[in-house]
Hints:
There is one protein chain. The radius of gyration is 17 Å and the shape is elongated. Helices cover 35% and strands 20% of the residues. By secondary structure, it is of the alpha/beta class. The longest helix is centred in the C-terminal third of the chain and has 16 residues, at 127-142.
Amino acid sequence: MERLIFHIDVNNAFLSWTAVEMLKNGTKIDIRTIPAIIGGDESKRHGVVLAKSNVAKQFGIKTGEPIYFARQKCPQIKVFESNHKMYREYSDKLYKLFQEYTDKIERFSIDECFLDMTNFIGKNENPINIAKEISNRVKSELEFTVNIGIARNKLLAKMASDFEKPDKIHTLWNEEIP
């Protein structure tokens, strides 16, 4: 039996998880819909962009650049502090959801996992349908989005998940490589 690997990557993880938490706590504006970044403490004159909204991306803001440069590109940018304890909690919730589909999970980072679905998707089941189910459950139960890449190995699954974002599912089968 050929291997079947899903690579699942949270879209704008730190910003998305911060947005979900803020909305749960009564904030009216979803920071995923405005120019917003997760970054360091500007008052101490240090910090880089750890995550950015899709709107912030439109201003050319890049992950890893100093917040100072991000403000030059977009003076109205909203900056939110990181909260790694909360990120770990959301990562763990996601992992727990994945365990309902397979016990062969490899954390690649706090917001990315490989799922070996080889023995967990039946011969007559379509892996894209299972990926859609996972994606929809993440949206409805955890309130953020993921990209899912599907392939026969981890490298190709990772590449597939990076094709187009956000909230997409892509395959990269051997015959699709060219």
